[in-house]
Design goal:
The complex is a heterodimer of chains A (669) and B (498). Chain A has 669 residues and is an alpha+beta fold. Chain A folds into 4 domains: 41-247 and 390-500, FAD/NAD(P)-binding domain (3-Layer(bba) Sandwich); 250-263 and 273-386, Beta Barrel (Elongation Factor Tu (Ef-tu), domain 3); 507-602, Arc Repressor Mutant, subunit A (Orthogonal Bundle), CATH 1.10.10; 613-668, DNA polymerase, domain 1. In chain A, helix 2 packs parallel to helix 11 and helix 4 crosses helix 5. Chain A is globular, with a radius of gyration of 26 Å. The chains are: A alpha+beta (669), B alpha/beta (498).
Chain lengths: 669, 498
């Protein structure tokens, strides 16, 4: 494996460290026990080493905070607990944005990916979904090596017993202030100005399989201490809810009859996630395929006959509607075929991940069920599937910086906020880490607008609407989808990330500046090339330019035609355009969307203005001398929105519900 | 009855509105030169700002870049004649037919020295409904002009930093514009045949959008066939055709009655119909001692102190097993939701639930009328009055007797001042203006739907954008549609896994 690795370089920047097979020993040098901690005071402590925790720790360190990452097992830092894949439609947008802010997951995906494809290829570049199947080992190794080589970041193995709290800083809003953590092994407390909790499914987590339940957040890991949960509920008085999720059984690859499934090949040319990478570690021809198969009526029968043995599915805790267990799928939509993807777990792994077969019945029933699926008719289960139920903190109690409003310095990110998915966790982790670092360094919090990023949409949805089921990103959640594209995440975020936020390295910043300047030059060149339609036809041949009299078109107009590529223009006008060939695709995308983005700009500016208009927390809505109904006054009084835009959102939410009730009443009559 | 205003609260409000963040910089390629977007918060807006109802002089306000065009085309003020902030007596003409609509004063306020901070104009015209309607229609026929949304002048002024940020009214108005006015407007559209038509279009359009969004967000991993899009194609075509037909229909659907809507609502046998008859001085509604006599909404046009009003008598609010009466109660509630000005309650049944119902309306728009004072003893009455004084948050209360006409003068005075306040409120929306607004939004909706067809085969994100814009336009009439609502439809119609 190691022999085939070449360091990938983009403009002299060496992003991939070559990893040797002796990797674990390299790890040991950095792992520490509490008694050996070099210091007992940090700026930021991050609890948890999943997707949110790793991004948070790295981001806090990047903004300049001395950071400690505490996790139960160093070995599982960066583990992919569920599906071995990254990205997708909407989620891929988040990966690109995390990468644009110098986060880890994009580069880790490029390192660990073994099957790359761009979803939605035929539906328009604004909704392309970059996605990759991952090698679990490689992903973990990359994340660990990145963290352990990040300056100002220390990793500690341990379990957190409780949060240390004190009186709030009277200059800032809040009822408490966090001062550090106490570890379970009774060693002395570790103090910090900020604490980021990324406990995932471990907060009062229970595992479900058949009729047995056991405490825990992931199979094979110890449950987290009850102390933390107690602190959040009892001492901080935070409202918590309960959600559930699940994972499918892992199947022994050799026992699968692939001739009965249809092969799904990756893209011929893998597209990297990261703006810094020009190609992926995996060579195009080394990529592994996925397989597609379907459920049969037999599957439905097994589910129905085993319901009494399945206590997870009988409970009414909210599970996700879009990633349902096979049980809820067949119960909600009976009599249908459901897709099952058979995905590789890694280059050298003997296991397969059956996407779409998350289940919680007893192991022997699980085996019966999967054998009802043709390619799995003699399949063996390596690890059975199971369900998890866990507490989440209602995210409306957080600020747009992901800080708990009532507790200064306490930040939450990932599943603890009611989201699901690696990408959603990574995005929140990064932003919570940035703000935790800034709080510790006495810098003001920063927020991302929903007009500039999917991360902004995600956080705004969480803090202003809350969740009723595990929250997942979809492109349909973004109002300005045609502007917030995967291709331009660097221009949207990298520059701001360096200039205003401080979480982007100067190396990446310089690259983004170069890209921005080159694109501007290229666009100017395209716009300045103005020719009559007839001349364009002479130069380019028949490309479907409509014949309107006396019409003149510039290069940008031409690029909007389906049949015209930037390469064609470059070969016709090599002096003008060939210097910009590196950006062919981005220029073509820009040409298509530019007019629509212009139309959206005014509305975006309006939203940004309203997002930035803050309302005083002690406003007396009940006696505001304007025409407002008692109902509106009471809602505003109860919610106490922090900005004008939040007040509108909250009211619209309440009213759309009451409108729906009103309509429902009408239907009843 | 406005709640008392504590000066202390507002003194601290001077720093209420501070910009908390540096406005995010639009960098790189997305910083584009402005193209006036019809569907966004742009363009030139106009509205009758003196409120509707009979008045001597009506003021029509125009704000935005095309203000000078309006002055040139309708008042003949060419560039050389424009004098800032000076009233000029001009003939006001229709830009197309050149017909003289009125003679009145016109003013020009070049930005930024205007209420909204933009170029603005004012037309002071005669207050008759015909003149007002003609001038508004003429303005609407000019390119780049559209009727203002509820509260839009205030919002523009606010964003231009023109509403003194230290003035609390400015902030209150903004919250009102952003919430209450829009909601009331949407609720008003939900009644009647026209409302049902818009609702039907909205729900069909929502479904179209949900199916396109499902195809974008899930089809790569899930079983969503291309056939879904073919269904959307058909639906979008149908919707476009229906809306175009509706726009061409000269009858313009149901005529909106002009005047302030006054709704009489309350428990059965409280004497609502008696009050209507007393007010219009003729037996317009059947009156009987049997509870539930009035079933349908009975409307009467009335002039109250110079203001046109439409008085509606409604079925008494109670749970009834009778189907017809239930429908009557539903209509009564619907009417109350639209514009509740006046509500009648039976003196003996001052239920808590009634008070709750009342509290959902601005108190200045309600009157609590307690009828049948002739039937209670003086002692009882004093007890009640003490009780009323003690309970806070109540609208103004009138004690009357339709039998003896006791207290009727006071009630009329209270009703008159309530209507006067309402007519002076430009946010309440004159019917003619409402129609023009509907037309503008429907036209935008149709235009946006053609974007769907244009990009259907090349770029589904842009095609979906067309449906989104169409739904936004329609939503300006029927109420906003959020992303969650679309997702709800997706999950109801498709089995989505990963």
């Amino acid at each position: 494996m190691a022999a085939s690795i070449e360091p990938l370089c983009v403009h002299g920047c060496r992003r991939f460290v070559t990893l040797s097979k002796t990797f674990p020993s390299f790890l040991l040098r950095f792992s520490r026990t509490a008694s050996h901690l070099a210091r007992h005071k940090y700026d930021v402590i991050v609890v948890g080493g999943g997707h949110a925790g790793t991004e948070a720790a790295a981001a806090a360190a990047r903004v300049g905070a001395e950071t400690l990452l505490v996790t139960q097992k160093i070995h599982t830092i960066g583990a992919l607990s569920c599906n071995p894949s990254l990205g997708g439609v909407g989620k891929g947008h988040l990966v690109k944005e995390v990468d644009a802010l110098d986060g880890l997951c994009g580069r880790a995906g490029d390192w660990a990916g073994i099957h790359f494809s761009i979803l939605n290829r035929r539906k328009g570049p604004a909704v392309w979904g970059p996605r990759a199947q991952l090698d679990r080992e490689l992903y973990r190794q990359f994340i660990q090596s990145e963290l352990l080589s990040t300056p100002r970041l220390t990793v500690l193995e341990g379990s957190v017993e409780e949060l240390l709290l004190t009186e709030p800083d009277p200059e800032e809003p809040g009822h408490h202030r966090v001062t550090g953590i106490r570890l379970a092994n009774g060693s002395q407390p570790v103090s910090a100005s900020s604490v980021v909790l990324t406990t995932g499914t471990f907060l009062s987590g229970s595992l479900f399989m058949g009729q047995t339940t056991s405490p825990g957040g992931r199979i094979g890991d110890a449950p987290s201490s009850a102390g933390l949960s107690h602190t959040l509920r009892e001492r901080l008085g935070l409202r918590v809810g309960r959600l559930r999720t699940g994972t499918p059984p892992r199947i022994v690859k050799d026992s699968v009859d692939f001739s009965l499934a249809s092969l799904h090949a990756p893209d011929k040319q893998p597209t990297p996630f990261s703006f810094l990478n020009t190609h992926t570690r995996c060579k195009p021809e080394e990529q592994l395929p996925c397989y597609l198969t379907h459920t049969t009526p037999g599957v439905e029968k097994v589910v129905r006959e085993s319901l009494h043995l399945n206590c997870h599915i009988q409970q009414d805790t909210k599970g996700p509607r879009y990633c349902p267990s096979i049980e809820s799928r067949v119960l909600r939509f009976p009599g249908r075929r459901h897709q099952v993807w058979l995905e590789p777990e890694g280059l050298t792994s003997d296991l397969l991940y059956p996407q779409g077969l998350s289940m919680t019945m007893p192991p022997d029933v699980q085996l019966c069920l999967i054998r009802e699926i043709p390619p799995l008719h003699r399949a063996e289960i390596h690890t059975p599937g199971y369900g998890v139920q866990y507490d989440f903190v209602c995210p409306t109690q957080l600020s747009p910086a992901l800080q708990v409003k009532s507790t200064q310095g306490l930040f939450l990110a990932g599943q603890i906020n009611g989201t699901t998915g690696y990408e959603e966790a990574a995005a929140q982790g990064l932003w919570a880490g940035v703000n935790a670092g800034r709080w510790a360094l006495s810098m003001p919090p920063v927020a991302l607008s929903r007009t500039e990023s999917y991360i902004g949409v995600l956080i705004d949805d969480l803090v202003s609407r809350g969740v009723t089921e595990p929250y997942r990103m979809f492109t349909s959640r973004a109002e300005f989808r045609t502007s917030l594209r995967p291709d331009n995440a660097d221009l949207r975020l990298t520059l701001k990330g360096f200039e205003e936020v401080g979480c982007v390295s100067s190396l990446r910043y310089q690259e983004a500046v170069r890209v921005r300047d080159s694109l501007q030059d290229a666009l100017a060149a395209l716009q300045s090339l103005v020719l009559p339609t007839s001349s364009w036809k002479k130069i380019l041949g028949d490309v479907g330019i409509s014949e309107t009299k006396n019409s003149i078109l510039n290069g940008m107009d031409l690029l909007q035609y389906n049949n015209v590529s930037f390469e064609m223009l470059a070969s016709a006008f090599p002096e003008r355009f060939s210097p910009h060939l590196e950006f062919s695709q981005r220029l073509e995308i820009e040409a298509i969307y530019r007019p629509h983005c212009d139309l959206q700009r005014k509305e975006m500016e309006r939203i940004q203005r309203e997002e930035s208009l803050s309302l005083p927390p002690d406003m007396d809505y009940l006696s505001l001398p304007v025409s407002l109904s008692q109902e509106v006054r009471e809602i505003l009084d109860r919610v106490r929105p922090s900005t004008v835009s939040l007040s509108t959102k909250e009211l619209n939410l309440v009213f759309s519900q009451s409108n729906q009730q009103h309509q429902a009443q009408q239907l009843l009559w | 009855m406005l709640p008392s205003i504590s000066a202390g609260i507002w003194r601290g409000a001077q720093h209420i509105l501070r910009t908390s963040r540096v406005a995010p910089r639009r960098t790189g390629l997305c910083t584009c030169a402005g193209i006036p977007g019809e569907l966004c918060d742009a363009g030139t807006i106009f509205a009758l700002s003196s409120g509707h109802g009979r008045c001597g002089v009506a003021v029509v306000r125009v704000s935005g870049p095309a203000s000078t065009t309006a002055l040139r085309c309708m008042a003949g003020l060419t560039h050389s004649l424009l004098t800032p902030r000076t009233a000029l007596l001009r003939s006001i003409t229709d830009p197309q037919s050149k017909e003289v609509l009125d003679r009145g004063l016109v003013l020009w306020f070049p930005g930024p020295h205007s209420f909204t901070g933009e170029d603005s104009a004012e037309f002071h015209i005669h207050g008759g409904p015909a003149v007002i309607t003609a001038v508004l229609q003429a303005l609407g026929s000019l390119p780049g002009m559209r009727p203002a949304e509820a509260g839009e002048f205030t919002r523009r002024a606010f964003h231009a930093g023109k509403l003194g940020l230290t003035e609390v009214e400015g902030l209150g108005d903004l919250i009102h514009a952003e919430t209450e006015a829009q909601r009331r407007q949407a609720l008003r559209q939900m009644c009647g045949d026209l409302g049902r038509l818009y609702q039907d279009w909205t729900s069909r359009l929502k479904r179209c959008l949900a199916h396109v969004e499902a195809f974008i967000d899930f089809s790569e991993d899930e079983l969503i066939e291309d056939g879904v899009l073919n269904q959307v194609d058909t639906s979008v075509c149908d919707l476009q055709a229906e809306m175009e037909r509706h726009l061409k229909d000269e009858r313009r659907g149901e005529r909106l009655r002009s005047g302030v809507q006054v709704v009489i609502a309350g428990a059965t046998n409280a004497g609502k119909s008696s009050l209507l008859n007393t007010l219009c001085q003729r037996p317009a509604a059947i009156v009987s001692p049997i509870a539930g006599t009035t079933r349908d909404v009975v409307e009467t046009a009335l002039d109250i102190g110079g203001f046109p009003a439409v008085l509606s008598d409604t079925a008494g609010l109670r749970d009834s097993p009778d189907l017809v009466e239930r429908e009557g109660v539903r209509r009564a509630r619907e009417r109350c939701m639209c514009v509740c000005v006046c509500r009648l309650c039976y003196v003996m049944h001052l239920f808590k639930s009634d008070l709750l119902f009342l509290s959902s309306f601005p108190s200045e728009r309600c009157l609590l009328v307690l009828n049948k004072t002739d039937l209670v003893s003086e002692e009882w009455r004093q007890q009640l009055e003490t009780e009323l004084r003690r309970s806070s948050g109540l609208p103004p209360v009138c004690l009357i007797s339709c039998q003896t006409n006791e207290g009727l003068q006071d009630f009329l005075a209270a009703l008159h001042s309530s209507i006067k306040a309402l007519c002076g409120d430009p946010l309440s929306g004159a019917p003619s203006l409402t129609q023009a607004r509907h037309r503008a939004h429907l036209q935008q909706c149709v235009a946006a739907l053609s974007q769907y067809h244009r990009y259907r085969d090349t770029d589904l994100a842009l095609a979906a954008e067309g449906v989104r814009l169409a739904l936004t336009s329609l939503g300006r009439i029927t109420g906003r549609v959020g992303a969650e609502e679309i997702l709800d439809i997706i999950f109801k119609d498709f089995c989505i896994g990963k």
